[in-house]
Amino acid sequence: MQLCSLAGELLECFQWDAASDRDEVADELADVLTYALLLADRLDLDEYLKLWRPPDIASGGQG
User: Fold this and answer.
1) Distance between CA 53 and CA 50 in Å, rounded?
2) Distance CA 30, CA 36 (A)
């Protein structure tokens, strides 16, 4: 449910004006992506997380 709420906040940036504030969009997008990654981690979706993490983080800092 929280992910839907955060995504709604991101969509609000574009609801009334397509030329929305770049910083506001970046903040809302960061919230959505962070929550999605936390959810994937909680669901133990390591194989999927490796697709989104830089190689040095995905390998535990060894590459």
Assistant:
1) 5
2) 10
Q: pLDDT (tens digit, 9 = 90+) per residue, 11-56?
A: 988 887 777 888 999 999 999 999 988 888 888 887 766 776 666 6
Q: Which sign, positive or negative, has the C-alpha torsion 15, 20, 26, 28? A: negative
What is the three-class DSSP state of 19? Answer: coil
Which amino acid belongs to residue 50?
A: K
Q: Which token pair is 42?
A: 């909680």
Which of 35, 26, 28 has its CA nearest to residue 10? 28
Tokens found for residue 14: 């574009």
* Rounded CA separation 14/16 (Å): 6
pTM as predicted: 0.66
